[in-house]
Amino acid sequence: MSLPNRTPLVLLLAAALAAGCAAPPRREAASTLQPPLAERWQRAPADVAAGPADAQALAAWWRGVDDPLLATLVDEALAANLDLKSAQAALARARALRDVSAAGASPQVGSNASASRNRSNERNSTSLSLGLDASWEPDVFGAIGAGIAAADAQAEASAMNLAATRIAVAGEVALATLQWHGTRRQIRVAEDNLALQAESQQVAEWRSGAGLATVLDVEQARSSAEQTRARIPALRSTLQQTEHRLALLLGQPPTALTERLSRISVPATAAALPTLPALPAVGLPADLLRRRPDIRAAEASATAALATLAQREAERLPSFSISGRLGLQALTLAALGQPGALVAGLTAAVQWPVIDGGAGRAQVAAQQAALDSARFAYRSAVLVAQQDVENTLAAIVAGRDQVASLERAAAAATEAASLARLRYQSGTIDFTPLLDAQRSALSADDALASARTELALNQVRLYKALGGGWDPSTTAGTPAAASASTSTTIAGTRP
Questions:
Q1: Residue range of the domain that includes 242
Q2: Can you give the pTM of this predicted structure?
Q3: CA spacing 20 to 30 A to 158: which of 93, 111, 141, 323?
Q4: What total number of domains does the chain contain?
């Protein structure tokens, strides 16, 4: 081969070596995205520590709840929930696509074989060939590296979406379980009050029969009891809907849990709800950037958009390729083994979209807009996360005050109803004060049961808002996902 024929190849190899010095696209760090963060939480209760949250406790916070049923249902949901299965499949797909992108940076080798039989001018000819083809595209301007970086970031975003789904599933199961406990408590309150009202109705009927009361007292007593009785079916319907919701979260048919849950007795005391642990330390708003997987997913999406922008810009520049062929070619099978059957070739090529009608420039502009959108989405995710925490902290403070007031109101209403019942039985008052006292007692007891349930639900929402339910030291919050982590850093330069 003469020197002039070698010159293009030498130049192409030099360009390929220069590709090793090209800087890959940088990772979008949270600091460069300028997240809008508050300095501290404004609504935190006095008993909530301001120090860093306990990552171990938050990772499986439901195990600290004094309710074996809740812990069991959460664990079952994390193993069988269909949304989680879908998120796991999405992560597997993202990782496979990342491998596809990475394969483009490696040399490609293939094999081929052919046999042909031709006839021309009443003569037959045979041609046999067997060979290997190889090709390589040097990443001179970083287009391939940027594509790999974008696929890496997309895989990380999928991993964070899986973690966010895990948090949502654990939280929704806990919310539904506590709502189920609370609704059963409301049913118990209604049944207890119905029993008392039935007794009052019997007293009214006895007094009416003895000429000590009017038929109006009897009818008022019956009306009050029936109104209370009418409330129970609505509560039972709510209970059944909650059971159906739990079954769906566990990936089961709606009525799959009915028999299992029916075997759990209702506590006779007011403490029908499971005891939740003390409120966790909330740390600082900046801690959410690592604890909340939805924020990390938004950051990864911005990283992917930045890498894709670098890829689009590099695609407007020349691309180079080297291909070669080594094989055997002969007219007969026996001749394939002869030295003269050996054929070889080497090709160097360059492609440059010089005129494309502005398509390349438009693709870059479109990707720049996508990057801007991803950055705004990240900032929005940070704001929403802070809102979640502040709203929940404020609800807990207000809920505690409400429960304390309702406990005093319920105690006073119960005492008033007892006194009114005794005075009515003794004939010192008519039925109207007793009816009002019973209604007040029922309303106060029901409101107290609802407030206690809502306070417990808000504590669960606080765990969710703080990113509780996964381990940030792993990619997707599970050991299996951690072992297959594809989280990579795009920052840095090549030597």
A1: 31-113+138-320+364-483
A2: 0.82
A3: 141
A4: 1
